[in-house]
């Protein structure tokens, strides 16, 4: 079993009569990218603040990189890179000055490393932060989180304010971090970046973990829209009763249907005819997420 970079057991956080977390159990493996999904108010940011000891739990246990965040102190924090969804700092400094200061706090970061990350994100470090757009401030936040190559990256809505091109640069940075053996714990509303980077996805609702799934397993079970073009017309009845097939229609020599789960039965049935073309839409993680969230179909957590 892999070592755990993050572990919580029966984690509870209450705010007066309101409950932010209601017995959260998390297990994030060392070296994986873990996508933490849930709408506003589900408990994502509360979880992250507890991991960083920005707030304290009402009850339960938290371990980060093998240490209690409350007792880990500076030594633990140097091993972590953190980025909030809205990176707010003293605007009187330039980006270079701020990153140099933070680099010194973390024991030193080569200037070349900072410059490479800034160039990758098309970031001008000579400008004062107060004159930057939200997107450019967020770029500085991305650089400060990644620049010291931490063992653990904790990212809370990290691409907020970034345009689509720069979101792709961020995806490449996360993939490089994973390849280097770093662990990434990332909450996000951008489903495409989760699909492209995460090994596993945890879905949280009302302060509890609904499910944990590997991304490829989510895709395998998700509903696809399939369109198959045959050389000649095919009988609808041959396909409409197949396992996982629904909403099947035949228009001349074209079959259209929805496929839930494995495609094996549908492919074998289609192979009995001459297939001239096939289109299968990639399962959308966002649709699956909202299915879990709206129906509460996952009553237990699987790994």
TrEMBL record:
Record's keyword annotation contains ATP-binding: yes
Keyword Nucleotide-binding: yes
Subcellular location: Cell membrane
PROSITE patterns: ABC_TRANSPORTER_1, ABC_TRANSPORTER_2
Membrane topology: Peripheral membrane protein
Family, similarity comment: Belongs to the ABC transporter superfamily.
Protein name from the UniProt record: ABC-2 type transport system ATP-binding protein
Source species: Micromonospora pattaloongensis
């Amino acid at each position: 079993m892999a070592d755990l970079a993050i572990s919580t057991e029966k984690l509870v956080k209450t705010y007066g009569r309101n409950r932010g977390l209601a017995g959260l159990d998390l297990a994030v493996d060392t070296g994986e990218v873990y996508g933490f999904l849930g709408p506003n108010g589900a408990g994502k940011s509360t979880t992250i603040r507890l991991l960083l000891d920005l707030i304290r739990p009402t009850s339960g246990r938290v371990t980060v990189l093998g240490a209690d965040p409350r007792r880990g102190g500076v030594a633990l924090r140097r091993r972590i890179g953190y980025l909030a969804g809205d990176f707010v700092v003293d605007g009187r400094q330039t980006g270079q000055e701020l990153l140099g200061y933070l680099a010194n706090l973390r024991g030193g970061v080569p200037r070349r490393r900072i410059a490479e990350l800034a160039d990758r994100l098309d970031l001008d470090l000579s400008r004062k932060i107060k004159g930057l757009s939200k997107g450019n401030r967020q770029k500085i936040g991305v650089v400060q989180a990644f620049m010291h190559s931490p063992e653990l990256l904790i990212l809370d809505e990290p691409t907020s304010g970034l345009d689509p091109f720069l979101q792709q640069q961020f995806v490449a940075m996360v993939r490089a971090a994973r390849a280097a053996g770093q662990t990434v714990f990332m909450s996000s509303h951008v489903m495409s970046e989760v699909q492209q980077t995460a090994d596993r996805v945890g879905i949280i609702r009302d302060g509890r973990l609904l499910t944990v799934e590997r991304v490829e397993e989510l895709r395998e079970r998700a509903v696809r829209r399939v369109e198959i073009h045959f050389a000649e017309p095919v009988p609808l009845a041959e396909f409409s009763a197949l396992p996982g097939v629904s909403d099947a229609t035949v228009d001349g020599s074209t079959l259209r249907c929805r496929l839930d789960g494995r495609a094996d039965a549908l492919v074998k049935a289609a192979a009995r005819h001459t297939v001239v073309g096939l289109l299968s839409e990639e399962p959308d993680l966002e649709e699956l997420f909202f299915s879990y969230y709206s129906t509460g179909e996952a009553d237990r957590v699987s790994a």
